[in-house]
Amino acid sequence: MTFIWLWTDFLLWLLFALTIFAVVKIRGNDLLHQKWQKIFAQPLALSAFIVFTFYIVIGLSDSIHFRFDKDTTTYSVLDRVLLPALEADEKTYSTPLNYEQFSKEYLDSGLRGRVHLNLVSSEITNPSDNTKQILTITANVLFYTVAIFVAFILLLEQFTSINTRSKNSRPALVTIFVLVFFCIWTILMMPNYHILGTDKAGIDVFYKAVKSIRTGMIFGLLTTLLALPPAIILGLMAGYFKGKTDDVIQYIYTTINAIPGILLIAALVLILQVYMDEHASDYASSLERSDLKLLLLCVILALTSWTGLCRLIRAETLKLSELEFVQAAKVFGVSNIKILFNHLMPNVMHLVLISIVLDFSGLVLIEAVLSYIGVGVDATTMSWGNMINAARLELSTDPVVWWPLASSFIFMFILVLSANLFADRVRQVFDPKGDTDE
């Protein structure tokens, strides 16, 4: 087995390592530790964080790629978990949890007319058996989940100081219970069913929706990470040095903001697309090509999305640079670099943190919009935007093929909702003007 490291894999795991480092630093800082405890003390924010973490775990599991010896197919850890759905070989559409095709076909040379053929993955022949099997599996999963959950609660009470009977912990425990139930139910249902049906090519829709999580996480996290350095550095320089430096930096981000964002992104993406088509031989495989396009698209989005945070940091720095501790540092001969990064930057990090958590959901939605208008990720990359784009024609069919669009919407809605709920609590706690006692 050979591990294959893509650029986005490396950056996602680097971001994960930086997050662990940040957690260690926060635990060593009493003030920050108290603020984060206040964030997680709110039941809704804690539940949203658990769901968001669940998405991150899925994205990271899809960022470990490998290839078996004498096999040209590249898998991820997530692919092996979803192997029954990955290897689904159906002909065409099927509705969620069904045992037969959505459309009718001729059987026995047309002697019996057009009928709904059975799916390859199903041995059931009538609706009552199908319902009975689904209910049986669900009941078994509920039993397993309750047993696991009871053991989990006992371990929490034994080895931690968490009070599982308190009102604040109940929403989080319910969230964990639902996620555990969903995971076990999915694993047991996949060998016999297409949980969210199949698309026109017979590909499992649930597999596509789950695989799209990684693309959404890359857009939300990597784009934010790439946009931070220019926003922080230029914002601090503009607010501290003032004068011509401030004028030049203001001119740069004002010019970028003057161009309609979607048009600028579309133009850069089309230029990138032409270049990659002309140099197709430079890429070892279609996976590496699509991954590089995904990374460069994140870079393009970062180049157009740093201006808002830069303006906020500039305004805050203009205020901070006139305070006594900065003036005292100048009098004692502290260098400008140390003043910028040791004195000013720590005092604007609350703006950075609030911007990160608030912008994440917007960037996830931008990916869907760009793919919908045809300037998003590569067609071979699974993403919610590509699923929505492919579902446009399906909505005009009779009967309507609704489940691919609904699946992508539900997965994206849950991610964006959890991110927004958690972001709102972070803003309340870290914003100096906010009501931190809410």
Write structural notes for this entry.
This protein is mainly α and 438 residues long. It has a domain at 211-420: MetI-like (MetI-like fold). The protein is 68% helix and 5% strand. It has helices at residues 7-27, 30-40, 43-61, 77-81, 83-86, 127-159, 170-189, 205-241, 243-258, 261-278, 286-305, 307-320, 324-331, 336-344, 349-372, 384-394, 403-430, and strands at residues 2-4, 65-67, 74-76, 100-106, 114-118. The chain has a three-stranded antiparallel sheet. The protein has a two-stranded antiparallel sheet with strand order 4-5. Strand 2 (65-67) and strand 3 form a beta hairpin. Helix 1 packs across helix 8, helix 3 packs parallel to helix 7 (170-189) and helix 8 (205-241) runs antiparallel to helix 9 (243-258). The longest helix has 37 residues, at 205-241.
